[in-house]
UniProtKB/TrEMBL annotation:
WD repeats lie at residues 981-1014. The keyword Protein biosynthesis does not apply. Keywords: WD repeat. Residues 30-171 form the Putative E3 ubiquitin-protein ligase LIN N-terminal domain. Residues 564-917 form the Putative E3 ubiquitin-protein ligase LIN ARM-like domain. Residues 387-562 form the Putative E3 ubiquitin-protein ligase LIN ARM repeats domain. The keyword Transmembrane helix does not apply. SMART domains: WD40 (SM00320). Transmembrane segments: none annotated. This is E3 ubiquitin-protein ligase LIN-1.
């Protein structure tokens, strides 16, 4: 916004009249010089070069810099706006003139104190106004030429003097500004003050002579003067006024608000002597025009077209001039009492409005203003004269806009700005309403004056008080008459002006921005989010509370925020959401909607839903801060959009731990009563498919809460709605949503909104190993949610409701299990699993019926290659559905299913139990398939060897010799890199898992151990442990961290990170832990067992006693159930208890002669290993028969190996990662 603030003293000077000879000299000098400039093409070209030279310099020196889009737009408008002005002057093209005005408005509205792409805003604003001055000259608007030039002088007088028109600057300063008195013209600040004073007076004369020739300019011939709208840079061609020569002009002065003797103070009445000293001329004449002669010209309509206006222009002008001559011939005292009767008649209709207004004003002034008997009078004439006086007083305030931010009169203290704002706003709003209610051109003209002056004050003033008053008045006008918003939009109300006002804490601007209803992209370009958040978090919205506003700044901000977080692409929405997801902002957001305001509640619900989806932690804060009653009112309303918003809000909010969701459901049931159940039942029947499911889900949960006998019908309707969508493949979205609801309606969630039903179920299936748990994605196994007992009770209650419907439920789930949509089939498997936990306790007939329908569909999920959690769920389902009489069904399982169950037996006891039962009914000689198929391959060159691999939180982590850690997401047979971390300075050598806190450990050659943790799906280093030697290997047992160093020393770090050495008399080569014990392979081929609890050490394998060959180190130790295998020159294995007895090994495998086994891993039937003689191949040996059955080529030297979920994965020296599964 281009302006300069003025001091109180300068504000006072502005009200002292300027000699009209000086004003005429100013106008003449400026117009003469500008006319000369546009008549000289060479001068115009030189001026254009000066103004655009900085842009050319910027392009040459900063061509590589990427500027903000809004900055590029402003500079582009500035550059082409100037070029278009020159082209328009040469070609005299009207279209180019208007196009130039539109372009120059953008740079002209900048804050002059800032920078745009490194260029001073003062320079851009000053040049823009100067070129608008040239445009006004082309349009023949001499007064506006001077106003624009003075605005350029106010913004940057040094630019005018040095770059634009030095000669005109000298003439204006020496001839016009210096004569104003002391202080004016002294330096640039004095020039600015003088320019501001001249500008205010010119604007005042423009308005007071609205629709007539400026009284300051004596025309020597008849001219057609274009109508000027006194505060707009957009020019309307909708009408023209024809004016005639005037010879004797009356000097027009504004009402001086600083002196009580001349002040036109708005009271219930005005004393006669006030009118004797007031100069209410042209505006009174405009209002007092004889209605009898011209009533037919505009009665019945407020919109006058060009042709209608031109037809009556001369008659209207004659009436004005006649009244003007009469006014000059009569004494001024008589003017106030001898107006024509027609004027009084034209104001009769407004009498009641003004009487009410005066009563309110008297109440407002009570206690501040003393009433005097001598100023009281009655009579129609005095009443009507007072109205005209009020109109002029308002116009005076608007022209001298700094008065908008100051007290109304000397009776008010300086601290009463708030009262003034209310008073002025009420004043202008009442006048505007009066003018709006009267048909006729003259009233339309006065309305335009008010709006134009408000827009000018908004766009040019830098004083917060003036801006606040302008915005408050506009907001009040719009609130009382919604059509006003269309009028100000047509007049060019700038969103950027409102945005700048909003950023200056003029919060009422938010109301106008909302009512203008700009497009989402326009709102985004304003960059309002920080300011909107500030408004939301403010305790009081604005200084002067305008109770008439039907939209408050808080609520307008709320609804604008809704657009910013919902209307764009994911990236943009999340950027905006990041600003409002803190607990402080959320606690303020939920208190914004006013009671009963559905529109605001709908906006809030939409915002909160987005917040919960963006940042799951918001869900907890929303549940704590949000009052429940307003959102119940959304569902209970008769408004369709409100009901849908309420359903979506509660669907998202109820994705919380089961104990908390039960508490929320109880509040819903208590406060919603039977009404909410009825509304949900109707919503199931009437809304679109998605919301039918949401209504059915909420209805079922509320019904389960109390299980009333009289709501069986509701329960059945809700369940049938979910099942109908589940079997409908035509609408995949509805099918997927129905499957999701069913899978978790009997389970639980984390506070992040992540479904934890699967995690809760696989724990029931016996999953205990941290290594296996971390193969499953998106589960924090340390979350207390998984320990809640209430989940079990709730699940049983919901399951009882579902299975009461019998076979239709099982058939629907069977169809869902066979869905081609992976997510739908997975969710149906989850539903079958938690229902099965209740079926196993039910009657045999029901269980057998469910088993007959579902078993064949469940079998497919136990095979290798399926996600581990799905294999475990399938195992749980088979165990529950074949319990009791159904056990004989196990004999029907295929050999492949039975083999898959056998491979799961090392993970879950349920698989082992199922195999025992199957072998009891039908003994089977196992057929082992040794065929492996490659399913994974990923290569990331340039990072060195893959030294270590591990699964953590469902993702594969790989450590490289250059110190980087890469995180891979595995979906089916595809590996996708999702993170690349480089915090270690040297090679990563090993990984391990720390159970407390479910943390990841990484060891490195840089002598550090880093502890990592996953927060909001991002990995963060939370601790660094420094050692004196490089780390070779890591293992954990409880809170203890065992670190094997490069010098073969074993160090132990406790929970306080105190370190001590263990096995001091041995050189250690490898370590492995299990069930509170650590097994240590040593360089002398011995194996030591360390019990962590009591620190008891035992040697379970003595060193080899051979005088013929040197002892070989134990390179690798593997544990399988209760067996321990060690690898050196050969692989030997026995039960751990046999090792303790120093018994002979039960298993012995010798690879190629002379080769050492570098590493090995065991997966059920197979032993995988690689040796020094075949370092690029994985050898496959059968564990039971100790026969080599094949090998897998890694393509390069193998440097790491990992087995997980029947997969074997290896990393190579070249950075290649490969993975296989047995068929």
């Amino acid at each position: 916004m281009a302006s300069s603030s003025s001091s109180p003293s300068s504000s006072t000077h502005n009200h002292q009249p300027i000699n009209h000879n000086l004003l005429n000299l100013l106008l003449t000098s400026i117009n003469h010089h500008i006319n000369s400039l546009i008549s000289t093409p060479k001068s115009l070209k030189l001026l254009q070069t000066k103004c655009t030279s900085k842009l050319n310099t910027l392009t040459q020196h900063h061509s590589s810099i990427l500027f903000d889009f809004s900055e590029q737009s402003i500079l582009s408008n500035f550059y082409y706006g100037i070029h278009n002005v020159n082209d328009a002057i040469e070609s005299k093209c009207v279209e180019k003139i208007q196009e130039s005005v539109n372009m120059l408005q953008a740079p002209a509205s900048l804050n002059e104190n800032g920078l745009t792409a490194g260029i001073s805003n003062g320079f851009l604003v000053c040049c823009s106004y100067f070129y608008l001055c040239l445009v006004s000259k082309v349009q023949g608007d001499d007064m506006q030429v001077a106003v624009h030039f003075l605005q350029a002088l106010v913004v940057a007088p040094w630019v005018v003097r040095c770059d634009l028109v030095p000669e005109l600057y000298r003439i204006v300063v020496e001839s016009c500004i210096v004569p104003l008195g002391d202080g004016f013209g002294d330096g640039f600040e004095g020039v600015r003050r003088g320019a501001m004073r001249y500008k205010a007076w010119l604007m005042y004369h423009q308005v007071m002579c609205y629709g007539q020739s400026p009284l300051l300019i004596k025309h020597t011939s008849h001219e057609n003067i274009r109508n000027t709208k006194a505060c707009s840079t957009s020019y309307s061609n909708s009408y023209h006024q024809y004016h005639h020569h005037h010879q004797n002009f009356v000097k027009v002065q504004p009402i001086d608000l600083q002196h009580n003797t001349n002040a036109a103070i708005v009271q219930s009445s005005v004393s006669k002597n006030v009118y004797e000293t007031s100069s209410v001329k042209r505006l009174q004449d405009l209002l007092i025009e004889e209605q009898s002669d011209s009533h037919s010209l505009y009665s019945g309509t407020t919109d006058i077209g060009d042709e209608d206006f031109e037809e009556y222009a001369d008659e209207f002008d004659k009436s004005l001039r006649t009244l003007h001559i009469v006014a000059e011939q009569q004494p001024e005292a008589a003017i106030s009492t001898s107006k024509s009767s027609e004027f009084w008649n034209c104001l009769d209709d407004e009498k009641s409005i003004w009487e009410n207004f005066q009563i309110s004003k008297m109440e407002y002034a009570k206690g501040s203003l003393s009433m005097s008997d001598e100023i009281l009078f009655s009579g129609e004439n005095s009443y009507r004269v007072e109205q005209a006086e009020i109109v002029e007083k308002i116009i005076s305030k608007l022209c001298f806009s700094e008065n908008l931010g100051r007290p109304a009169n000397d009776y008010l203290d300086d601290d009463d700005d708030d009262e003034y704002d209310d008073s002025t706003t009420a004043e202008i709003t009442t006048v505007y309403e009066m003018l709006a209610n009267k048909p006729g051109l003259k009233y339309s003209l006065l309305k335009d004056v008010i709006l134009d002056q408000l827009l000018m004050a908004l766009s040019t003033s830098k004083e917060q008080g003036v801006t606040r008053a302008s915005v408050s008045i506009l907001a009040s006008l719009v609130s009382s008459n919604r059509s006003v918003i269309n009028e100000v939009k047509k007049k060019g109300l700038s969103l950027h002006d409102l945005a700048n006002a909003l950023k200056k804490d003029v919060y009422e601007a938010a109301v106008l921005i909302y009512l203008i209803n700009p497009s989402p992209n326009e709102i985004k370009s304003l960059e309002l989010m920080p300011t909107l958040v500030k408004i939301i978090c403010s305790s009081s919205c604005f200084k002067s509370s305008l109770k008439s506003l039907f939209v408050t700044p808080h609520s307008a901000s709320l609804m604008i925020i809704q657009v910013l977080v919902t209307a764009f692409d994911y990236s943009t929405n999340t950027t905006h959401l990041a600003a409002i997801t803190s607990p402080k902002v959320i606690s303020c957001l939920v208190n914004v909607p006013r009671n009963g305001n559905l529109e605001e509640l709908i906006s809030l619900a939409a915002i909160l839903v987005k917040c919960m989806r963006f940042d799951g932690q918001c869900r907890y804060h929303i549940s704590q801060f949000t009052p429940i009653s307003p959102f119940i009112s959304l569902i209970l309303s008769n408004h369709k959009d409100a009901i849908l918003a309420g359903l979506e809000f509660y669907h998202e909010l109820l994705r919380m731990p089961r104990s908390s969701s039960i508490s929320l459901l109880q509040q819903l049931r208590e406060k919603g009563g039977i009404d909410i159940m009825c509304v949900l039942s109707l919503a199931i029947q009437q809304t679109q498919q998605e919301y039918k499911l949401l209504a059915g889900s909420l209805l079922l949960q509320l019904d389960v809460l109390e299980e009333p006998a009289d709501t069986v019908l509701n329960r059945e309707v809700a369940i049938e709605t979910l099942l109908e969508s589940l079997i409908c493949e035509e609408n995949s979205d509805s099918q997927q949503l129905a499957a999701f609801i069913l899978s978790n309606i009997g389970g639980t969630y984390a506070w992040t909104g992540e479904p934890y039903t699967i995690a809760w179920l696989v724990k029931k299936a016996g999953l205990n190993s941290m290594l296996h748990k971390n193969i499953i994605k998106n589960i924090d196994w340390s979350d207390d949610t998984l320990q809640e007992h209430g989940t079990e009770v709730w699940s049983r209650k919901v399951a009882r409701h579902l299975i009461k419907l019998g076979d239709p439920v099982f058939y629907a789930l069977k169809k869902g299990l066979k869905s081609k949509n992976k997510r739908t089939s997975r969710d149906c498997l989850t539903t079958v699993a938690w229902i099965g936990c209740e079926i196993v306790k039910g009657p045999d007939d029901l269980r057998c019926s469910a088993c007959d329908i579902l078993l064949n569909a469940i079998e497919q999920y136990v095979h290798p290659g399926i996600e581990l959690e799905e294999r475990l769920l399938a195992c749980l389902c088979i165990y529950n559905y074949t319990f009791g009489r159904g056990m004989q069904k196990l004999t029907q399982l295929s050999d492949g299913v039975r083999e898959s169950l056998r491979r799961l037996s090392s993970i879950t006891w349920m698989a082992e139990e199922l195999l025992k039962v199957a072998d009891y009914y039908m003994p089977n000689k196992w057929r082992i398939s040794c065929v492996h198929t490659q399913i994974l391959e990923a290569n990331y060159n340039g990072n060195g060897a893959v030294n270590s691999l591990i699964f953590y939180r469902g993702h594969l982590f790989s450590g490289y010799s250059n110190g980087s850690i890469k995180v891979w997401d595995i979906k089916g047979q595809t590996m996708t890199l999702i993170a690349d971390i480089k915090e270690h300075k040297k090679a990563i050598t090993c990984f391990a898992l720390l159970e407390p806190g479910n943390c990841l450990l990484s060891g490195s050659a840089d002598k550090t151990i880093r502890i990592w943790q996953m927060f909001e799906k991002k990995i963060h280093c939370i601790e660094v442990i420094t050692t004196k030697d490089s780390i070779r290997s890591l293992e954990t047992c409880g809170e203890m961290i065992f670190a094997l160093t490069h010098s073969h020393k074993l160090k132990v770090f406790d929970s306080c990170r105190k370190v001590k050495d263990v096995i001091k008399n041995k050189h250690v080569k490898c370590i492995r832990s299990s069930q509170g014990k650590v097994y240590i392979g040593c360089m002398d081929s011995s194996i030591q067992e360390l019990v962590v609890g009591n620190n008891r050490q035992q040697e379970i394998k003595a060193p080899s006693k051979s005088w013929r060959m040197q002892n070989k180190p134990i390179n690798s130790i593997s544990l399988y159930k209760d067996w321990l295998y060690s690898a050196s020159t050969c692989i030997v294995g026995s039960r751990i208890k046999d090792w303790r007895r120093q018994s002979k090994a039960l298993v012995s495998i010798t690879p190629e002669k002379g080769a050492n086994v570098l590493a090995m891993s065991i997966v059920e039937d197979f032993i995988y290993l690689y040796t020094t003689s075949s370092s690029s191949h994985l050898e496959i040996w059968l564990r039971g028969t100790q026969h080599k059955v094949g090998r897998l080529s890694a393509g390069n030297k193998i440097t790491s190996m990992l087995t997980a979920n029947d997969m074997i994965i290896c990393g190579t020296e070249s950075g290649l990662i490969k993975g296989w599964i047995p068929l």
